[in-house]
């Protein structure tokens, strides 16, 4: 099994965490090869990582699809519910966390531009998405709909999104009014799979 990605990508981290939790052996292949060439378009038309090349050479991209492929291998621990309604809800949580990450990565990109070149309307819209997503997660945790145990792909996706937000200081002060979310991510960040995939400071 090969995971093509970059060490800094939080979406790649999500798949690395799943592979580590399931103790599936894999080779990490950097999207930039030794000649400085980006190899991802050979595998993914959209040029996005992660890409998984399975042992039967089948190619899978987009992290929710890869997570589904890995779950279908039936290797414990189970990270996705089998019950239809519970599985649908977990996918909604995963989609929300991935969407939070989409907004956070776009905001990080926008904020890297010089002040005069930044699009203020985009920044406001992206901050709105991030705030509402964090509030939604807190509400679901308070209602007991998202729980730390058992670990799921949904909670792993939340950990990867918040890890990126913290590292890039995208939503400073978010901790103040999201105590349940802090408790969840603190428990995730103590796991060996998260510790081993923590990106180096850039
Ligand atoms: N929805 C995708 C998002 C993946 C994604 O946006 N990956 C970024 C790296 S963090 C990427 O490869 N961007 C390159 C590009 O869009 O050209 C997933 O969950 O796998």
From TrEMBL:
<feature type="domain" description="GST N-terminal">
    <location>
        <begin position="1"/>
        <end position="78"/>
    </location>
</feature>
<keyword id="KW-0808">Transferase</keyword>
<dbReference type="InterPro" id="IPR004045">
    <property type="entry name" value="Glutathione_S-Trfase_N"/>
</dbReference>
<dbReference type="Pfam" id="PF13417">
    <property type="entry name" value="GST_N_3"/>
</dbReference>
<dbReference type="InterPro" id="IPR036249">
    <property type="entry name" value="Thioredoxin-like_sf"/>
</dbReference>
<dbReference type="GO" id="GO:0016740">
    <property type="term" value="F:transferase activity"/>
</dbReference>
<dbReference type="InterPro" id="IPR036282">
    <property type="entry name" value="Glutathione-S-Trfase_C_sf"/>
</dbReference>
<protein>
    <submittedName>
        <fullName>Putative glutathione S-transferase</fullName>
    </submittedName>
</protein>
């Amino acid at each position: 099994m090969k995971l093509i990605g970059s060490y800094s990508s939080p979406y790649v981290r999500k798949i690395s965490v799943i592979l580590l939790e399931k103790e599936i052996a894999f080779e990490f292949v950097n999207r930039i090869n030794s000649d400085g060439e980006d190899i991802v378009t050979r595998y993914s038309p959209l040029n996005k990582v992660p890409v998984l090349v399975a042992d039967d050479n089948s190619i899978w991209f987009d992290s929710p699809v890869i997570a589904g492929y890995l779950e279908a291998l039936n290797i414990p621990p189970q990270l996705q519910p089998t019950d239809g309604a519970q599985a649908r809800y977990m996918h909604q949580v995963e989609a929300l966390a991935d969407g939070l990450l989409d907004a956070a990565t776009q905001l990080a990109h926008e904020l890297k531009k010089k002040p005069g070149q930044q699009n203020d309307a985009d920044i406001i819209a992206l901050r709105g998405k991030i705030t509402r997503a964090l509030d939604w997660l807190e509400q679901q945790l308070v209602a007991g709909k998202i729980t730390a145990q058992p670990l799921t792909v949904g909670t792993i996706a939340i950990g990867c999104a918040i890890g990126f937000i913290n590292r890039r200081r995208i939503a400073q002060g978010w901790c103040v009014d999201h105590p349940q979310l802090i408790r969840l991510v603190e428990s995730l960040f103590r796991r060996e799979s998260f510790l081993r995939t923590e990106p180096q400071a850039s």
